[in-house]
Amino acid sequence: MELASGQSKQKYLYLPFPHNDFIFAVLAEELGFVGCVVVILLFAIFIWRGILIAMKAQDMFGSLLAIGITTLIGIQVVINIAVVTNSMPVTGMPLPFFSYGGTALAILLCSVGVLLNISRSTNK
Q1: What pLDDT does 33 receive?
Q2: Is 86 helix (H, G, I), strand (E, B) or coil?
Q3: Nearest CA to 22 among 87, 85, 101?
Q4: Count of CA atoms in the C-beta half-sphere (13 A) of 120
């Protein structure tokens, strides 16, 4: 029996916070292995671009700020996926840009805006 999109079984029976901490598990159940690989690949591209922005920044402050923002998002991704795959204990770390929560999303989007501003003023 194939489930329609948005009707995963895990989020109603087994996961304590499927909309926050375990959104990657719901995403894995809904989109499968290919969806998980695509999401991880998108985060890897984001981290790679953040490192490139940090290396090409005009000054040391911009470079440190860019690498800090990139590291913050990268560590959140690694910790959330490790928690969902039961590689480490539950920490309550949301998956950036996916988990429910307005404040975390607003701060992440502001951080990405700062990262884009650093990118705009780089030495080409």
Answers
A1: 92
A2: coil
A3: 85
A4: 6
**Residue 38: Cβ within 10 Å count:** 12
* Rounded Cα gap, residues 35 and 69, in angstroms: 25
On whether residue 12 sits in a domain, the answer given is: no
Find where tokens 């402050």 sit.
Answer: 61
Residue 96 to residue 70: CA distance in whole angstroms: 11
pTM of the model: 0.82
Alpha-carbon dihedral angle through residues 8, 75, 72, 20, given to the nearest 10 degrees: 20
Positions of the chain with pLDDT under 50: 1-4
Query: Does residue 58 belong to any structural domain of this protein?
Result: yes
Q: Is residue 76 part of a domain?
A: yes
Q: Of 84, 85, 109, nearest to 96 (Cα)?
A: 109
